[in-house]
Design goal:
By secondary structure, the chain is mainly alpha-helical. 45% of the residues lie in helices and 2% in strands. The protein has one domain: Orthogonal Bundle (Flavocytochrome C3, Chain A, domain 2), CATH 1.10.1130. It is built from ten helices and two strands; from the N terminus they run H-E-H-H-H-H-H-E-H-H-H-H. It has a two-stranded parallel sheet.
């Protein structure tokens, strides 16, 4: 009996340790921009959420639900509606260009190109990143911080804003960045 209890205790401890090991290595889930709203729609945050909501990025998925988008998809040779075509979704919904994105139940395609399109799936960092002392922990948990100065922001934008897009227009990064910039107030 004692041996059985010891064996059960060791097995339980192994399962708990194994679960925590795999949880740490789990890919970040996309949780959706609504998860960002409570903290990022305040005066203190510069109303970043409202800024995003006013941009075409927030409506990117909705543009795929139009008759015009379906015509473009058909012209490109796709057999599905634009809103169901992976090649279209890759640039019109956060995370859809990832090889194996993981989505939380809270995520909705309707949010289009949201916060996580630029900052990465938020499940690992959403509770960390608002405090400056936790920034490195947030980055380690999957938070991306695109930077204009080092070119990473422009590179990220051009993953979709390029001549592979059937509706591509000359993309002027500096001009467009001004329209979507959402810095934290100092």
């Amino acid at each position: 009996m004692k041996k059985s209890l010891s064996l059960i205790a060791v097995a339980a401890a192994f399962m708990v340790l194994t679960a925590f090991t795999f949880m740490d290595n789990a890919p970040a889930k996309y949780v959706g921009s609504q998860a960002c709203k409570a903290c990022h729609n305040t005066d203190k945050s510069g109303k970043q959420f409202a800024k995003w909501e006013s941009t075409p990025h927030s409506k990117a998925f909705k543009t795929l639900q139009s008759e015009d988008a379906d015509k473009i998809a058909a012209k490109k040779g796709f057999k599905t509606k634009a809103a169901e075509t992976p090649e279209c979704l890759a640039c019109h919904v956060s995370g859809k260009s990832d090889k194996a994105p993981v989505y939380d139940a809270s995520f909705k395609n309707d949010e289009g190109v949201g916060c996580e399109a630029c900052h990465g799936g938020g499940s690992g960092y959403k509770m960390l990143h608002m405090k400056k002392e936790n920034l490195e922990k947030a980055k380690a948990a999957g938070m991306l911080v695109p930077n204009v100065a080092d070119g990473s922001a422009e590179k990220q934008c051009k993953e979709c804003h390029n001549d592979k897009s059937p509706t591509h227009k000359d993309f002027k990064f500096a001009e467009m960045w001004k329209k979507i910039a959402h810095p934290m107030p100092k």
